[in-house]
Write a structure and sequence with these properties.
Blueprint: H1 23-37, H2 47-57, H3 63-71, H4 74-84, H5 87-90, H6 99-106, H7 108-125, H8 131-158, H9 163-172, H10 175-186, H11 193-199, H12 203-214, H13 218-225, H14 239-250, H15 261-270, H16 274-280, H17 282-293
Amino acid sequence: MENPSTLDAPAAAPDAADAATSPIETLAARIADDIREGRLELPGFPEAVLRIQRTMQSPDASASDVVRVLGSEPALAARALQIANSAQFRRAGPEVTDLRTAVSRLGFNLVRSIAVAHAILQLRLRETYSPAAKAELESIWRRSIDVAAASYVVAKHCTPVNPDHALLAGLLHVLGRLYVVMRAEGIGVAPDAEVAAAAAGHEGRIGRLILAGWGLPQSLQDAVEHQDELDHPGEEITVTHVLIAAKHLAAQPRDEERACAVIDRIAAASGTHPAAALETHADELRGLIRSFTG
């Protein structure tokens, strides 16, 4: 893994005995070390989910390989079957009762999405985390689903971007924030506004490095890294533009004063404004959210 520039923090983790070092400085230093040394594994992430990501890294990965990994985690397998049979993805097909058919119906991108959503849900439900961490994990979970659903609808109705690819980008965009929260929890620092400020501007890069470690496509890495660039350039509309637009439109409350040039570009290219698409296809949007939260 590459060695990017570090956070604006000391080059090494400070001595715990140094009373002059604040917990936030300690966290920033630990994250800087993790980035520099390529240790960007998400603490507490279910092993089955990581195995799915590793399995799909291989260009030779088959549906049988994915089914084998899914089958090793009953709760994840059940979730895949449930979503394959949901109104949003079942369409006119018969009910799916086996994992192989479910994987074929969903495709690898959706299986990845289900795995990531399942992992965040499992973290959110753990009883061992502090109240602050639980609250932040709840926020991350909701944000990932809302942005993923918006990304899918915007991609499908306003751009040539594959909607399943956009859905996955929406779910993955929170990984940098998730990493910061879990790292803070691991060293006893409440993941509050002060932590958010310390990590501001770095979560996209952290998320990209995690995705690089998982072997996910460069297009997804780019989308996660540049998710906050409201004027992101580029001649063609890509999944990065879709994620930026969806994240801006799904924000609660939306910052109306921050103009999003990407949204205007998508509207001009397609003739359909992304905000209008979300309103027109509100039932589809709600159906997607229900598929991942039901």
